[in-house]
Amino acid sequence: MQETSLYAIVMIPARMASTRLPGKPLVDIGGEPMIVHVWRRAERAGLGPVVVAAAEVEIAAAVEKAGGKAVLTDPGLPSGSDRIAAALEKVDPHGLFGVVVNMQGDLPTLPPEYLRLCADALVRTGADIATLAAPVRTDEELKNPNVVKAVAPLAWQEVALAEDFVRELPEDYHGPAFHHIGIYCYRRAALERFVNLPPSLRERQRKLEQLRALDAGMKIAVARVAEAPFGVDTPAELEHVRRQLARKGEKHT
């Protein structure tokens, strides 16, 4: 199945049910909800329309108040990928957009150019999906199972096809390690196929959704970037981002 175009749309899945930081999309950062900061950064990337796929009306209302577009989705959907696929059917039922960018809603410091790099990797390689990774900088990061590592020959290439995604590298692994960044660009047909596939065995074992695609024979391109953006999952991380953006004077980013 071929897409009708390579026009891109950016989708940001968001839901209130975060266990470590309840109500995460609406937490205040510099006078605005976090989801609004993320939406503004996606807008600045200039890839195409930006739509928040919201599980709750409160999120949609916050985005629309800021001038953005939001679509309500079933709060029972199991993943962000399912959420953006459902929202996409509502906003683009005729398939105008052939490239779909899935941007996490908890990356309020993400450089907008990262989204462009991800989309460029998809187009350049002809892969089904593209994502990002940055060099691991510390032993703590290397050993942390919550930091997913992309296994790909990125030491000598700016863009390469993924071989695997792991939480812990094998003891005999000696190459440079790369911190996977959970932003994805899908070809429209690949997204539709992905959300209709059952979870694979490795996906269930490692709790890594992207392994479903690899195990189904789909190709994932990985683009190397300089630094992993700071995500917000805990109150401590929220305070860190508040200080970081306050230093930069970024309310309306």
Structure description:
With 253 residues, the protein is of the alpha/beta class. It folds into two domains: 1-106, Spore Coat Polysaccharide Biosynthesis Protein SpsA, Chain A, CATH 3.90.550; 111-228, Spore Coat Polysaccharide Biosynthesis Protein SpsA, Chain A. Helix content is 34%, strand content 22%. It has nine helices and twelve strands. The strands form three sheets. The chain has an eight-stranded mixed beta sheet with strand order 5-4-1-6-11-7-12-9, sandwiched between helices. The chain has a two-stranded antiparallel sheet with strand order 2-3. A hairpin with a 2-residue loop joins strand 2 (28-29) and strand 3. The longest helix has 14 residues, at 112-125. The protein is globular, with a radius of gyration of 17 Å. The termini are far apart. The mean pLDDT is 93.
Which terms summarize this structure?
22% strand, 34% helix, Spore Coat Polysaccharide Biosynthesis Protein SpsA, Chain A, 8-stranded mixed beta sheet, 253 residues, 2 domains, two-stranded antiparallel ribbon, single chain, alpha/beta, 12 strands
Major beta sheet summary: 8 strands, mixed
Report the CATH C-level class of the largest domain: Alpha Beta
Number of domains: 2
| Name given to the CATH architecture of the largest domain | Alpha-Beta Complex
TL;DR?
By secondary structure, the protein is of the alpha/beta class. It contains nine helices and twelve strands. The N and C termini lie far apart (38 Å).
Secondary-structure map:
Blueprint: E1 8-14, E2 28-29, E3 32-33, H1 34-45, E4 50-54, H2 57-65, E5 69-72, H3 80-91, E6 99-102, H4 112-125, E7 129-135, H5 139-143, E8 149-151, E9 159-161, E10 164-166, E11 178-187, H6 188-196, H7 201-206, H8 210-215, E12 220-224, H9 235-248
Parallel strand pairs: 1-4, 1-6, 4-5, 7-12
Antiparallel strand pairs: 2-3, 6-11, 7-11, 8-10, 9-12
Helix pairs in contact: 1-4
